[in-house]
Design a protein that fits this description.
This protein has 234 residues and is α/β, with parallel strands linked by helices. It folds into two domains: 1-36; 41-232, TIM Barrel, CATH 3.20.20. 38% of the residues lie in helices and 24% in strands. The chain is built from six helices and nine strands; from the N terminus they run αβαββαβαβαβαβββ. It has helices at 2-36, 60-65, 86-95, 112-122, 149-167, 177-183; strands at residues 47-51, 70-77, 81-82, 99-105, 133-136, 172-175, 192-196, 211-220, 223-232. It has an eight-stranded mixed barrel, surrounded by four helices. Helix 4 runs parallel beside helix 5 (149-167). It is globular and about 75 Å long. The model is unreliable at 20-32 (pLDDT under 50).
């Protein structure tokens, strides 16, 4: 009985070792897939990246070489913040023959007019640029003086009208799932949508998207940091 008990323990330990190794291999494979996966080019011919100061230096020629057709550049945020790398990134992206757009991170706690003034000061009026993008993630509930739902929609509409007058193009709403769940803006403001969900197609807006951040940490030779990889709905 003792020999059988010892053999049984050894078998269990071996099985645990095998399962542990399989779990480790699966974890490594999953990590690699997560950091290297991008939607197939056959399904999404137009692909690119969102890039800002937080991404560090970018090799723009390498970005073009790996298949980027465009770049959205973080430009401004709220009423006063600006991305220090925007001007240089804009110059380098154009030199690499990429289509370029600018993105503003909207802050519901700040007046729309001040945010629009910040954006138009940073972003040049250039008809060759892509439509401006507005990132919607912050909630009015988190403001020092909470903003009502009606106030969110009203101020956002004012902001959009002002930056669209500057750029001459309708803006794209880059909207997170939590912002949409809270305000249902996709059904209230008629603009093209940019949704975010790594690997799985997003459906939280209730209507089709135009841009999709399909991998928020894509590993490429264009950057030491993971890139926010974006595709266009064909």
């Amino acid at each position: 009985m003792a020999r059988k008990s010892t053999a049984s323990r050894h078998l269990r330990l071996r099985l645990l070792g095998v399962f542990g190794l399989l779990a480790l291999v699966a974890g490594i494979w999953g990590w690699w897939q997560l950091h290297h996966w991008q939607p197939p080019r056959a399904s999404y011919p137009m692909q690119g990246a969102e890039i800002g100061n937080a991404d560090g230096p970018v090799d723009w020629k390498a970005l073009k070489a790996i298949g980027a057709d465009f770049a959205y550049l973080d430009a401004s945020a709220s009423a006063f913040a600006r991305d220090d790398s925007f001007a240089q990134n804009l110059e380098d992206a154009k030199a690499a023959k990429l289509q370029v757009g600018a993105l503003h991170r909207y802050d519901p706690c700040q007046p729309a007019e001040r945010q629009a003034a910040n954006f138009v000061t940073v972003v040049p009026r250039d008809p060759k640029m892509l439509p401006p993008a507005v990132e919607l993630d912050m909630l009015g509930d988190d403001c020092p003086n909470p903003v009502s739902d009606a106030g969110i929609e009203s101020e956002l509409t004012t902001f959009l009208n002002q930056i669209e007058t500057h750029t001459g193009k309708p803006a794209i709403l880059k909207m997170t799932s939590r912002f949409q769940a809270r305000y249902h803006i996709a059904s209230q403001i008629d603009r093209n949508l940019w949704l975010v969900r790594t690997r799985l197609q997003p459906d939280y807006a209730g209507r089709p998207w135009t841009l999709w951040t399909a991998n928020s940490r894509l590993s490429t030779e264009a950057s030491d940091n993971g890139l926010r990889w974006v595709v266009v709905q064909p």
